[in-house]
UniProtKB/TrEMBL annotation:
One of its GO terms (biological process) is gibberellic acid mediated signaling pathway. This is Uncharacterized protein. Residues 1-26 form the signal peptide. Pfam families: GASA (PF02704). Belongs to the GASA family.
Amino acid sequence: MATSRSSILFLVSILLLITLSNVAEAYGRGKLRSSECNPKCSYRCSATSHKKPCMFFCLKCCSKCLCVPPGTYGNKQVCPCYNNWKTKEGGPKCP
């Protein structure tokens, strides 16, 4: 019985790793088309009170990187280009 539990745990772990790698690949490698930037950025900027500047910079970043991180905040590590593009002052350019 202990062997079957560890086998099930192992299989679930493998499936979780595969799923997470697929999510990272889908977001992190510039797979978006430029026509997909507007809906992705609309969702990304939906929680901010500064929608116009957020949309401006998000669309600019998306058109360059072809990637928008998932969610309304954070998760930038899945889009290296989006994450690493900085302002002249060294702050993040992309929301």
